[in-house]
Specification:
The structure is a single chain. The protein is 18% helix and 28% strand. The chain is α+β, with helices and mostly antiparallel strands. It has a single domain, classed as Jelly Rolls (Sandwich). α1 packs across α2. The relative contact order is 0.24.
């Protein structure tokens, strides 16, 4: 029998950072003002029932109530691009808030067509229901159509803490589980500027 070796190829660059306490506090205060302007669940394109500003206010990076957090996200995104040796400049184009209450979740999705996506956490359950889950892209590229192996079903769940921020390639599939207590996050996208 000839010798064989099976190994995994390619890695996916993720960034984990921490926001300042000031950015977290100002963001929570800014969200309270947004809830006054947009009470109740807003229309959105998702297949789940959450309060989000995605359809009504996804340019929070222009709102002075979110200036500190926007500046910190931009500093972190600059570092992400530097570490990845970006060939183009990245510019934030979308920034919105999500509030999930008991039993609510965000279905698995991607942000294809953008360069960088990310999320930050202002309030999270400290159990597995507070996790964000990232799925291997292999499943979504039909690899599971031909193979039945664990690698094609891979996912990674991360239980964030308050102030955590994650950045990742926009094509990565990600979502959340139904929560047992309130979860407040904000999400953002960057596009390539050539």
């Amino acid at each position: 029998m000839p010798e064989i070796e099976m190994f995994d190829m390619f890695s996916t660059p993720f960034l984990h950072g921490r926001l300042s306490e000031q950015a977290v506090a100002e963001s929570l205060a800014g969200l309270e003002k947004l809830k006054e302007r947009f009470p109740g669940n807003q229309p959105h394109p998702f297949h789940c029932d959450i309060w989000t500003t995605y359809e009504c206010e996804r340019n929070l990076f222009k709102d002075p109530n979110f200036a500190t957090v926007t500046n910190e996200i931009n500093v972190i995104a600059t570092e992400y691009c530097r570490k990845r040796k970006a060939k183009v400049e990245a510019r934030m184009t979308e920034f919105w808030a999500n509030v999930q209450n008991l039993g609510q979740f965000q279905e698995t999705h991607h942000h294809k067509g953008r360069m960088i996506s990310g999320s930050l956490y202002l309030k999270v359950p400290q159990d597995e229901t507070g996790a964000i889950t990232f799925n291997t892209p292999r499943t979504h590229m039909y690899d599971d159509q031909y193979w039945d192996c664990d690698a094609d079903k891979e996912y990674i769940s991360i239980i964030p803490e308050i102030g955590d921020i994650y950045m990742f390639p926009s094509w990565i599939m990600h979502g959340t589980r139904p929560v047992k207590e309130q979860r407040i996050s904000m999400a953002f996208n960057y596009v390539a500027v050539t």
